[in-house]
Amino acid sequence: MMRYFLRIYGDPVLKRKCEPVDEIDDEMKSISEKMFEIMYANDGIGLAAPQIGVLKRIIVVEVEGKSLTLINPEIIWQSDETEITEEGCLSFPGIFTEVERAKRTRVKYITIDNEEKVVEGEGLSARVFQHEIDHLNGILFIDRISVAKREMLKGELEALKRQYRKRKYVL
Ligand code: NI
Fold first, then answer.
1. Any idea where the domains of the chain sit in the sequence?
2. If you average pLDDT over residues 9-37, what whole number do you get?
3. CATH of 12-167, one of 3.40.50.12280, 3.90.45.10, 3.30.70.20, 3.20.20.150
């Protein structure tokens, strides 16, 4: 039985590209439940599978009061208009920085009941979809900011990496 826990920056699993899900079985359902559990326990509004060590294309989000599991999500359209807003990530506790993202997105995905759907997002919802889908490609929010901004966060990022190295050996 695999133990799922929140992975933090420094964990190499966060830089890997995830594989598509080809079958929605009971294991997928329990992974989705576990993801919601970890997301809510940490006051997040989105979580991607690699953040709990699972290299599969699955994300969970809480947008506009709805909890959604998106399997094999794909951005099929996004607006040219962008928005710069401060965001954080459960894998980077305490770190917040402004990230520029498309203001509106349209995402195609498969539900946990194996139905194909499309969801539109604007503002915060669009941001959550883009942030979580990035995770499935090993892209982190700090990869979307300027070198100068990343330089400003350097100390905090190094501290997180040290924390990860320590945590690795906790039994
Ligand atoms: Ni994140």
1. 12-167
2. 96
3. 3.90.45.10
- Distance between Cα 162 and ligand 1 center (Å): 19
pLDDT tens, residue by residue, 82-118: 999 999 999 999 999 999 999 999 999 999 999 999 9
pTM comes to 0.94
List, in order, residues 6 or more apart from 22 with CB less than 8 Å away: none
What the block records as the tokens of 31 is 């992974």
pLDDT at 1 (0 to 100): 58
Return the H-helix or E-strand segment holding 12.
none
Kindly give the distance from the C-alpha atom of residue 23 to the centroid of ligand 1, in angstroms, as a whole number.
25
Given 98, 116, 132, 151, which residue is catalytic?
132
Tell me if residue 132 is catalytic: yes
Q: What is the pLDDT of residue 19?
A: 98
